[in-house]
Amino acid sequence: MASDHTRSAILAAAERLYADRGFGDVTLRDIVAEANVNLAAVNYHFGSKDELIAELFVTRSIQTNRERLNELKAAEEAGGGRAAIEDIMRALVGPTLRGCLGPDREGSTAARFMIRASIESVPPIRRIKNREVDHLRKFAAAMRRAMPGRDDTELYWGLHFALAMAHHTIREKERLLRLSEGKCDLDDVRAIIDRVVTVSVMALTMGDVPNKPAARPVLVHGRLTRQDL
Amino acid sequence: MASDHTRSAILAAAERLYADRGFGDVTLRDIVAEANVNLAAVNYHFGSKDELIAELFVTRSIQTNRERLNELKAAEEAGGGRAAIEDIMRALVGPTLRGCLGPDREGSTAARFMIRASIESVPPIRRIKNREVDHLRKFAAAMRRAMPGRDDTELYWGLHFALAMAHHTIREKERLLRLSEGKCDLDDVRAIIDRVVTVSVMALTMGDVPNKPAARPVLVHGRLTRQDL
DNA sequence: TTGCATTTCAAACATTTGTATGAAACTATC
DNA sequence: GATAGTTTCATACAAATGTTTGAAATGCAA
Predict the structure, then answer these.
(1) CA nearest A13: which of A109, A147, A126?
(2) Å between A43 CA and C23 C1'?
(3) Cβ pair B164, B96 in contact under 8 A
(4) Which CATH number fits domain B50-205: 1.10.3720.10, 2.60.15.10, 1.10.357.10, 3.40.50.150?
(5) CB contact (8 A) between residue B160 and residue A140
(6) Contact B202/A201, CB-based, under 8 Å?
(7) Would you state the torsion angle of the CA atoms of residues A195, A200, A205, A206, taken in this order, to the nearest 10 degrees?
(8) Is the pTM of this model over 0.85?
(9) Within chain A, which residues score under 70 in pLDDT?
(10) Which of A156, A199, A212 sits opposite B161 (nearest CB)?
(11) How far apart are CA B153 and CA A102, in angstroms?
(12) Does B205 touch chain A (CB under 8 A)?
């Protein structure tokens, strides 16, 4: 293999165009024009359009997932094998939010691409996301170690809500900005991560529920382990 | 206008096919075949494919929005002009969740269609969603009345997170089911609504934050109004 | 019935799209 | 420098798709 030049040019051009204009509006011809390569080069190097998209997404995904696991590992080692729940949640949502938000990331093609991928959800990307469950299980396991005795169901819901807040913030940051008329600072990523982590931990450690008129019994099985008061 | 027969047949067929197979996989020819009408009928009655999709989505949307506002109004009247924050959040996320989740809704075309619309996010639908901000402002206003003195920023974040949890649950219910190996009951809609409302209210009423190492000051302006301990 | 507007229909249009082909250019090894 | 493997290129292919057209059918009022 000589230099990978064409291959990389296609990847770079594709990521930029998809980031700027979305998956629906960009054709292979747009990409090869931007990359100054021949149309047939895409199928030669990647097999198909979908495989090109998949490679783009996988590259960025394993990057984020590695960061997540690194943070998780660091937190567990610092805690002597058992990380604090707050640090686990931070390891879960931090890399994603840092990767997609923030003023420095404004011009980052990778960030804008991942935002697109989060919004549009095209088939090849959906397929990859479906395999993400195994990755999440590692966090569920860490959470279980951090909160023994907690009902598993509560764990999953907490994990689910944490991802909900993180991803929704990425997906709908424009709308939140407009709704709040700029009052919500989407550039202060640290503060956003803190916010998401805080709410997630609250959701996970809540033992009983305030102002609950006629509701389901909360945590019938789970022992109250922390600051439940 | 004779009977609207063709028009309604197209709408029904389109909603069903989109619900089952997604927007990407369904062509106008599929729709007219299912509806037993002529291909040109779509453009005659709706102008274009996108306008057909838009009409489908708008119909279901205003339905949900009306339910939301009805619940909000009822809560405000019951509270003498000022609804409890919990009821406001319930009015916000209840109709959406009830509309898309639950065992009875399993076979509901409308529900499956709205889930699709939430997942795939096709251009005509995105355009409509962008106009949703005005609708959300009414809830922001109600929240402001319910929690006077609260910083506006906190309000918007709370509103945002509530929608995050609701929509993410709809979007990713399959994954949550798989991750939790069926432990999370996605059919118990009442419980899910309670859960989302509870966490939302917690996020909104939290005065200070547990286990916070070095974080931004929370609520420097907002008075602590409720069970802050 | 006549006349006019609405609706339906079959067929064609006009593009756009990803993909395949086969020859040419290039590269590295002997 | 001949050979074989790799890469590039122009071009064609084939299929799908939303849209348009103009005539035929239908409905309705006078």
Answers:
(1) A109
(2) 18
(3) no
(4) 1.10.357.10
(5) no
(6) no
(7) 90
(8) yes
(9) 1-3, 105-107, 207-229
(10) A199
(11) 18
(12) yes
B69–A contact, CB cutoff 8 A:
no
pLDDT along chain B (229 residues), means of 10: 81 96 96 96 97 97 96 94 95 96 80 93 93 96 94 97 98 96 96 97 74 35 29
Q: CB of residue A33 closer than 7 A to nucleic acid strand D? A: no
Q: Integer distance in angstroms from the first to the last C-alpha of chain A? A: 65
Domain spans, chain B: 1-47, 50-205
C-alpha A5, offset from chain centre: 30
CB A129 within 8 A of CB B172: no
Chain A residues within 8 A of B210 when measuring between CB atoms: 201-202, 205, 227
Given this model, what pLDDT does residue B166 score?
98
**Chain centre to alpha carbon of residue A106:** 17
The answer to whether B5 CB is within 7 Å of strand C is: yes
Q: Is the CB of B38 under 7 A from strand D?
A: no
Q: Which positions of chain C lie under 7 Å from any protein Cβ?
A: 6-12, 16-22, 27-28
- For CA atoms B155, B159, B160, B162, the dihedral sign is positive
Token output for B184: 């999370």
Label residue A67 left, alpha or beta by phi (over 0 means left) and psi (-120 to 50 means alpha): alpha
What positions of strand D are covered by protein, i.e. any atom < 7 Å from a CB? 6-12, 16-22, 27-28
pLDDT at A215: 36
**CATH homologous superfamily for A1-47?**
Homeodomain-like (1.10.10.60)
pLDDT at position A20: 94
Give the Cα-Cα-Cα angle B124, B130, B131 (nearest 5 degrees): 105
In this structure, which amino acid lies at residue A64?
A: T
